[in-house]
Structures are given as structure tokens and as C-alpha cells.
């Protein structure tokens, strides 16, 4: 199911600790050891100090085994199958079931192997039966949440994370451009999407921009790290603007209410200028000081339903 193309690339992570396998597959290290001893499921190399080291094919096999195990197949039965039989069985289940774990595992392998072709093949397979909205929300969001945890536990490097994010980013850009190229006249509403100074986590705001464009609205996407003074000129061009921003790590909690006061004094000076914000840093905003033209949202879909 999860074919890995054997290419010699310098930065590919080709060996994994048992803790790496636990983080990547969700199977506890203790269980992996039992499966090895009882069923000879994996054959790791061992260091002089008896530390287990696993290759990429072992990770691939364990991801497939985990997938089958989650569908009720007992490890005693799976262990009797060879690798090709396991892959075939995974493929058959994936073709019948409406699940996303096999795609998430394939995207993980593409990331670990810096394998663009595997990413595109997996995405193209999903695209045959799902909209981009379904792919992003049902597959990419859970995948990115897992990637964040893998990065925190040193299972992957920032290069792995950036590789995956850049490919998802490309998909959003291409699809947004395709929609915008068919526009005739905007419908009168203007949305300006931006990230505050020093905020660079842009996938969420890019996806939100895609959804707004999909609904036929005029959207101006400014991207990362935009200072408040950089937004002032837009007030000269449009009478009705809804600014939208995503506060992931910035502004910092000690500065966020000062930021809101500055935004209000410099930008929200006209009756039909509004500000919609979301992201985890919004929990530090003093809600009692907010004016009626500022609204905080819990999720992207909450924003879209209010547009």
C-alpha cells in the first residue's frame, strides 16, 4: 500500500529507534517488543549495547500492521502474512472503507523520505472521491497535529515539517488561483486576510482564504508578518472591509491587548470596518474591552459560517 521509492538522498532519515516507531505508528514500544519476540514481526539491527535500530521498511510494515490491527485483525493472523500480502490486504480495506488513516500514514512516509511523488500519488487518490475541503479537514489537519507532536519529540526535524507544509501550501495556492482566475466582478464584500507581525504560521489563514474565495467573495491575501501600519492604506481603497487574522503564536500574551488597542485606533475608524480573529493566542484577549466590530472565533468553519 505505502510504496517508498528507493532514492539515495542525503538527509533521509533511514534508521529509527523503537521510540520513533511508537511516535509514528501509535503502537507502544512495549507492544512492539512483544510482537517481535512472540511473532517475529520485525527484525531490528542491534547496537553493541543491544539498542534496537529499525530501517524504513520496518516502519512501513508496522504502519500497515497498525492499520490492519485497528480494523480488528489479530496480530497472530497478521504475522502469518508476508509483506506483499499485508500491503494487498491494506489496499483492499482502504478501497472499501471511508477512513483516512492509510492516507495519513502514506503522507508521513512521503515526509520522512522527502518523497514528493508519494505525496502527489496519495493526494491524487484522495481527490478521486473527496473535495479539497474534505481532504484538508479530515486528513491534513489531523496529519499536521501529529506532525507537531513528532517534531516536539525529536522524531522528525524541521526539514521534514517544512517539506510537508510546503507541499500542502502549494495545493492551496494552485486551487485558490484556479478559482480566482474565473472571477468576473466581486460581489461587493472585501476581506483582507493577514498575519500579525512575526507570525509565520500561514496554512490556516491560507485555507481560510481559499474558502472565502470559493464562496465568491473578494479577498485580498497579504500573508505573513504584516504590521498594523501596513494595513492603513487599504482604508483609502475600500469603504467596507472585514479584516481577518490568525493568532497562532503572535502577538505574545503580554502584548496582545496593546495590539488590539492599536488596531482599533488605527484601523477600526469607520462604521463598516470589522475584524475577525481566531487562533490559540486569542484566549489572552480581554473580551470586555472589545468593540462590536471585533469578533473572536473558535475555528475556521465558525468564521466561514458567519460570512
Key terms:
307 residues; alpha/beta; Multidrug-efflux Transporter Regulator, Chain: A, Domain 2; Rossmann fold; 2 domains; 5-stranded parallel β-sheet; 3-stranded antiparallel β-sheet; 12 helices
Spatial ordering of strands, largest sheet: 5-4-6-7-8
| Low-pLDDT stretches | 1-11
Question: Roughly how many Å is the radius of gyration?
Answer: 23 Å
Main sheet properties: 5 strands, parallel
Judging by the overall fold, what is the CATH architecture of the largest domain? Orthogonal Bundle
Helical fraction: 40-55%
Indicate the CATH topology of the largest domain.
Multidrug-efflux Transporter Regulator, Chain: A, Domain 2
Highest-level CATH class of the largest domain = Mainly Alpha
Count of distinct strands: 8
Order of helices and strands: EHHEEHHHHHHHEHEEHEEH
Q: Give the count of structural domains.
A: 2
Structure explained in plain terms:
The chain is of the alpha/beta class and 307 residues long. The protein has two domains: 15-174, Multidrug-efflux Transporter Regulator, Chain: A, Domain 2, CATH 1.10.1660.10; 185-305, Cobalamin-binding domain (Rossmann fold). Helix content is 49%, strand content 13%. It has twelve helices and eight strands. The strands form two sheets. The chain has a five-stranded parallel beta sheet with strand order 5-4-6-7-8. β6 (241-246), α11 and β7 form a beta-alpha-beta unit. α3 packs across α5 and α8 (132-152) runs antiparallel to α9 (158-180). The radius of gyration is 23 Å and the shape is elongated. The two termini are 41 Å apart.
